[in-house]
Amino acid sequence: MSAGTQFAAAAGAAVALPARIVEPFMYGLQRLLGIKRMPWVFLVPNLTAVVLFALLPVFINIFYSVSGSDRLYPWDRPVVGGANYATLFDCDNFLDPSTCSRDLFWRALGNTLVFVPVQVTAMIVIALLTAICLNRDIRGRGFFRGIFFFPVMLSPVVVALTWQWILQRNGALNGLISSAGLTPVNWLVFPNTAFFWSVFVTVWAHMGFYTIILLAGLQSIPRDVYEAAKMDSATPWRAFTRITLPLLKPVLLVVFILAVIRSVQTFDELYVLTGGGPGSATMLMVQYIYEVGFAAQPRNFGLAAAASLLLGVALLIFTAIQMRISRGGKDD
Amino acid sequence: MASLTLENIKKSFGAVDVIPGVDLKIDDGEFVVFVGPSGCGKSTLLRLIAGLEDVTDGDIRIDADSVAHTPAADRGVAMVFQSYALYPHMTVRENLSFGLENIRMAKPEISRRVSEAARLLQIEQLLERRPKQLSGGQRQRVAIGRAITRDPKIFLFDEPLSNLDAELRVLMRVEITKLHERLGNTMIYVTHDQIEAMTMADKIVVLRKGVIEQVGAPLELYNHPKNLFVAGFIGSPRMNFVEGRIDAVGEGAVTFAADGLPPLVLEGAIEGANIGAAVTLGVRPEDFLVTDKGWPATVSVAEQYGASSYLHCALPGDRPVLIHEPGQSKAGRGDVIHVAPPAGRWHLFDADGLALRKA
Amino acid sequence: MTEASMSKTDMSISDFLTRRRRRGRFGWTDGLTYAYLLLGLVVMFAPVLWVVISSLKTPANLAEFPPTLLPYSSETVVVEGFDQPLALFDVVGEDGETRRLAQIRRVGIQAQMIDPADPEAGRVLVPVETATPVRRVYLAFENYTNLLASSGNDLWRYVFNSLFITVVATLITLVMNSMAAFALSKYRFRGSNVALVSILATLMIPATVVLVPTYMIVAQLGLVGNLWGVILPTVATPTGVFLLRQYMLTIPDELVEAARMDHASEWRIFWKIILPLSSPALAVVAIFSILSRWNDFLLPLVVLTRRESYTLQLALASFQTEYGIRYEILLAMTTLTALPLACAFIFLQRYITTGIASTGIK
């Protein structure tokens, strides 16, 4: 509490002077507009930013996806209808990306479809296991919690460079392997190992976040529920499956949705760690959007927008299904 | 100091009429208590007077000035909130002076007013503390102090004692009454506790569903409730009710009958009593006297308070009644006692719940 | 298995799956827990520690395989007739005698060596496997000084850019979000739900999905390559509004009403009453804002096209290719970039974790 108060005090001091000017101004507005309209005055700055940088872009993006050329400004772009979508879907055989005119899109989509379930499952299982361990009456709980959490604070670039340094040909991992008498592997050069480490590194970097949420969920389950279960001679496994998991369900659901949304958006770590390679083995959708819209010349904003809209729609559908399921659960 | 007039005040939230129309006149210097069960609109009425809610229709006048559309701060009223609403991050002194600083009062005048209010409420030694460091009673005093420093025309209290324990509540009740005597301001006090209403008010306003059921001095309401609701609400424990009919009307007496009960002769005359009319008889627990005649009541539980006793009894036909007996009752579980109200200590209500006036 | 031991195992499994061990007993589940946590300690912490250690190694030491655990530096000697200092090796001769020689160059499995004590004796060919380098533990802090020296003012510019973006964006976020949260928690007005929903709906829009149009708007505002082009699109965080609103809802409305009766203007109520009382939530929002602004990558990558507007993260990522061979600089830079947050973490750990736990927001 005190750290927060101090922080607020410091932040307050930094804006105290402008506030001195703001107060008469706001008071004048209140006189002018009346109290009833004041909430809108308070909302205007935030709403402006929301409209300008969140809502407006969605509509512009829709226009981008149905217009062509490499021009940035919408008014310079000719409408091409569904051409961008048609390009993305231009395949002879949908099961074989190499028959598509934009094979990278399909490879990125395929990679994402494998990456997300694997990464989310691994993330939740490990985070739950860690949370259960941290919830026990162990020595050094705060310390261990900090250890599992701190990678969340690291920037994606730092995370990627750290692991690159360990996984590189002459890195620490190969050093350990060779000193154990085994053959070193060039981890990031082979598609399968690169994919494995992509999952591993992203889980490593983010699991602490979910662990903290799950830990809070576990701690909110009252102890006497377990004592009651014990009096009801419930077996331990039943206590876990019939008490812990159901009571944790709302938290697990939140964790699941957040994990999926973030997993689909994975970009920074892999961009630095593998660059999407080898080949396109670890290129996910967001990187594809970045490559098409920004890295490649000429920049194909239309294609990037079409791909990103498809991604957005997929996320929307996923969230809607999740909401449906969770609401259905409540009706039971 | 000021008088307050409510003229046909209406308030609705959306389609719900919380207050369908209230007329009320409060005189200068009066201590008025709004009382009623929760949801009766008493708090809303207070907030309308304070200016925290806008009236849907009607007019509020303080003295001769209409304030229905004046902002809360400019009405010259001060409010003590149920939760006290002390600013948690300010010291007591800052809490007391915040409002005065807002109107740019001169510093010496602020400190004069603050120390005067502090002295009046005996919170001088608490001025540099924060609300968190105060007990419930002390917070209560600070909240009142904040109202006092503003020197308002009218004080508004919104259930101010409901967060205190029973003992402290009795103490604060007395203090607020004394404060009213000393300051002489008009005070409006909202509570759901009829004991607070009875003990503090010059005038009680009983509200139900946004409608004023009765206005009057405490004992007037106690002795002459206008209807079943007021009769049941005022007085503790509440009045016993027995449904029945008027069997006979005599000179200075009425005979009340109910199925399974022997007829009871009630001494005292009432207006407009028709033989055969369905009525409800109301008798307060303290008015049921144990006699050798009257209704037989079977004691189920006898509560001994020491100074008095409460007998939970059942009349024939499983009608529960509560009987107050002064001193320590000798009756025990299963005993049958005979009870009847003395002359004039009973109330009859017609089928609409309105009291039949005593002649 | 006897019944007693069965029930005992049962108890400990149940403790493991459900709750904590009772004090004074150390069951096998505790062993398992500690084993898991220690494994976690190694997996989570060792990589970062390894980077820090590596950043203190000399380039020669870094190039070794398998890598050494501690930073070593080879002993060198200046031999007459050679411009560069030569590395010293202990060489076991065929006769089993150890001689200390300086290596001139390595040719396959042979190394050309010379005796520094007696250069006149000429070069000798020695099999590599008989030679072990002479060295001592040495912390190569010059990696850091070299980094600062070689990048010169550039590095400070990156630090300044990152700091500027983080501080300014966080301050704006705090003020703007809390203003909106105040409006959405302490007023009943027509359109409040629409405003709330439209702010929260942006939660559903991944930043990456609207990357192109965001860039377009930034470009239209003339802010490409400008730090404000990274600041403005990020300030209206829906999570911040949501978190602050939820917190402000717990502040009694009566305080606002009391203040209003105390002649406080609406701004004054916000600034003097609500804002100070929201400081715990403000701190959480501030921490998250600082974290994500400091670590931000994709938006700066797209918007900050000029080298002098790079943030630390962009510079670090670009160093990866530029200094691809100069690992010691890259590692030092990585450590430096992570350092501020590591410090922040030590002080604010409790705060951050409770903040996440109570809101599920990052």
Indicate the percent of residues in helices of chain B: 10-25%
> Nearest-angstrom radius of gyration of chain A?
25 Å
Report the total helices of chain A: 14
Q: From the alpha-carbon coordinates, what is the Rg of chain B to the nearest angstrom?
A: 24 Å
Largest interface: A-C, 124 and 121 residues
**Helix content range of chain A:** over 70%
Write down the CATH class of chain A: Mainly Alpha
Tell me the major beta sheet of chain A: none
Fourth-level CATH superfamily of the largest domain in chain B = P-loop containing nucleotide triphosphate hydrolases
Mean pLDDT value of chain A: 82
The run of helices and strands of chain A is HHHHHHHHHHHHHH
Give the class of chain A from helix and strand content and strand pairing: mainly alpha
Within the largest sheet of chain B, what's the order of strands?
Answer: 6-7-8-3-9-10
CATH topology of chain A: MetI-like fold
Family (chain A): Belongs to the binding-protein-dependent transport system permease family.
Main location (chain A): membrane
InterPro entries (chain A): ABC_transporter_permease, MetI-like, MetI-like_sf
Protein name (chain A): Sugar ABC transporter permease
Defining key terms:
heterotrimer, A: 332 residues, mainly alpha, MetI-like fold, 14 helices, C: 362 residues, alpha+beta, SH3 type barrels, 8 strands, 59% helix, ABC-type maltose transporter activity (chain B), transport (chain B), NA-bd_OB-fold (chain B), ATP-binding (chain B)
